[in-house]
Each structure stands twice: as C-alpha cells, then as structure tokens.
Fold this protein.
Amino acid sequence: MDERQFYNERPETKNLSLVCPHCRQEGSYPIRWVVRMKKKDLPRGAGEEDRKRFATARSYMVRVDELVACRNLRCRKRFELTGQSVVLVSDAGSPPPGDFDPDTFGNR
Ligand SMILES: [Zn+2]
C-alpha cells in the first residue's frame, strides 16, 4: 500500500521571513508546503505490514519550494531555502501558527 493512502493531503502556503544571502535584504516570502495529515483510521485493504507502518506514521508537512527569488528589484537573485524541508505536525489538529520558524519547530 502506498504510504500516501495513510494521509489526507492538502497544500498550504506560509509566509517566512528570509534574508537574501546576496544583498542581505530581509523580506517575507510565501513558501508552499504540502501538509499530510494522518487519517484517523487505516484505509481499507490494509494488510499486516501496512498496519505496522500506519501505527508509526506521523502527520507531517513537506516543503515544496526549494528556491525563492529575491524581492529586491536591484538584486532579483534566486537563493536556496535553508532549514528543514520536512516538519512534523501535531496529530491533535491544526498545524502550527503561520509565523512559526521551521528551523526551530522540530526541536521543541
Ligand atoms: Zn537579494
């Protein structure tokens, strides 16, 4: 069974404050993520192996964007995003608030 069947998937965009490494200008950038929330119940047709994998599965989100283009019109250079590209999300419900910092979120 495909692991994706364990999750309800939805796109999400979060604004992140980033500093351009070329011109040092800070800006707010909308970064796209895909949120995979673990389903409440195991999908139909799951076997013993799927059951074990489902038991240890966690909700998480994956960053889609790898690069952003600097907003400074005199710079406009593209730079890579740093920090975690995969972040665990609480199974209890909503993902963290919009201003969370993915660099530290996983360490709490
Ligand atoms: Zn720049």
